[in-house]
Amino acid sequence: MKRIALILGLCLTGFLQISEAVECKDGETFIPYPKDCSKYYSCVNGVGYEQKCPDGFWFNPANKYCDYPSNIDEKYCPKYECPVGGIDYLPTPYACNEYVLCFDGTPVPQTCAEGLEFDPLIKKCVLIESSTCEILNCPEDSDELVFLPNKKDCGSYYICVKGQPVPQSCADGLHWSVANSRCESNETAGCNAQSFKIALAAMEPIPASTTFSIACPFFGIHFLPSPTECEYYFGCNNGKSHLFECPAGTAWDQTKKTCVYKNLVERCFYKY
């Protein structure tokens, strides 16, 4: 009886938040949300509506309900060892441009700005050619050609075939260009494999002594823009705020809830 009450309570709580919709297959009722275990989709008449589990719970794909993280198989949701207090950054097994922000013991999925990847050694978003991340993620089904760089060899790259990376080589003297997805001369390709020194500013919280402050919601984890500077944003955890600074050259996008290049953020235009 207690288990039934728990499931019912979690499901009812989850339905309070509806935003994104996806297509559901016949017979599906609840489906996992990609790369964020705290969310799931509820299927109604073939349409899946985004839902969120209550704080502290994850969606269990095996049982189709919000559950304690300790009850969920790691093949569905990797377990991240987040410190109880403070801030930390962890890589994910999914993609190089994604990472996990450990926020006072709570893992929060994050994405680097376009053109950047999370480097697990220095725990920062850096230029793709400077990243030590070696995850090769090919889409399972794609009508377009997908290329991936070889970060350890400027003269080679990968092409995705049926979801698998297949190694390829440029002609002698040519390097792979990430920007143009083709082999070019060394001067124009801009490849810097084997060199991991080009890093953007760390995604570190500003020291607690800062005079910046903001009113946070009392419950849950939220990310809010700084009211004065577009390069800064606040992370809120159950009413407690932390001020963060985006990597150099980027600014906070409240719609996407991530740092993107400044020229894509309208509220930064006055700085140019």
Tell me about this structure.
This protein is mainly beta and 272 residues long. 6% of the residues lie in helices and 36% in strands. The chain contains 2 helices and 21 strands. Strands 1-4-3-2 form a 4-stranded antiparallel sheet, with no helix packed on it. A 3-stranded antiparallel sheet has the order 7-8-9, with no helix packed on it. The longest helix is centred in the N-terminal third of the chain and has 13 residues. The chain is globular. The N terminus is likely disordered.
Give the CA-CA distance, first to last residue. Answer: 61 Å
Low-confidence stretches: 1-19, 194-204, 206-211
Tell me the total number of β-strands.
21
Q: In total, how many domains does the architecture comprise?
A: 3
Average pLDDT confidence is 76
Residues in β-strands, percent = 35-45%
Judged by helices, strands and strand pairing, the structural class is mainly beta
Could you tell me the radius of gyration in angstroms?
21 Å
Q: Helical percent range?
A: under 10%
Largest sheet: 4 strands, antiparallel
Largest sheet, spatial ordering of strands: 1-4-3-2
| Count of DSSP H/I helices | 2
Shape from CA axes?
globular
Characterize this entry briefly.
The protein is mainly beta. Helix content is 6%, strand content 36%.
SSE layout and pairing:
Elements: H1 2-14, E1 21-23, E2 30-32, E3 39-44, E4 47-52, E5 58-60, E6 65-67, E7 87-91, E8 98-103, E9 106-111, E10 116-119, E11 124-127, E12 147-149, E13 156-161, E14 164-169, E15 174-177, E16 182-185, H2 186-189, E17 221-225, E18 232-237, E19 240-245, E20 250-253, E21 258-261
Antiparallel strand pairs: 1-4, 2-3, 3-4, 5-6, 7-8, 8-9, 10-11, 12-13, 13-14, 15-16, 17-18, 18-19, 20-21
